[in-house]
Amino acid sequence: MICDICGLETDRRHALDLKRGIWCCPRCLHVYQRLWGYYSKKGYSKERCIAILRRIVERQKREGKWGTRTVYNTDPL
Fold first, then answer.
1. Going by C-beta distance under 8 Å and a sequence separation of 6 or more, which residues neighbour residue 27?
2. What is the pTM of this model?
């Protein structure tokens, strides 16, 4: 199975948004939960948090920090 957020192959997937059919790996789910915990208090929607997650993953991939075994930064922007 392929993660819709980072594109890595995973044996487990978690549903982020069933209406849109967005599934993610456990790693992206962990980052999303931290983002949601922070941004939901500020009134951000679920869709906006998913967009933020995608930007974080894309940035970390460009910087070479989103490997299969690397430590990743989950601090909001």
1. 3, 6, 8, 72
2. 0.79
Per-residue model confidence (pLDDT) at position 76: 52
Report the run of H or E that residue 23 belongs to, with start and end: strand 22-24
Q: How far is CA 44 from CA 5, 7, 12, 19, 65, in A?
A: 19, 25, 27, 18, 26
| Of residues 24, 2, 10, the one with CA closest to residue 36 | 24
CA-derived radius of gyration, the chain: 12
67: part of which helix (H) or strand (E)? none
Q: How many residues are given for the chain?
A: 77
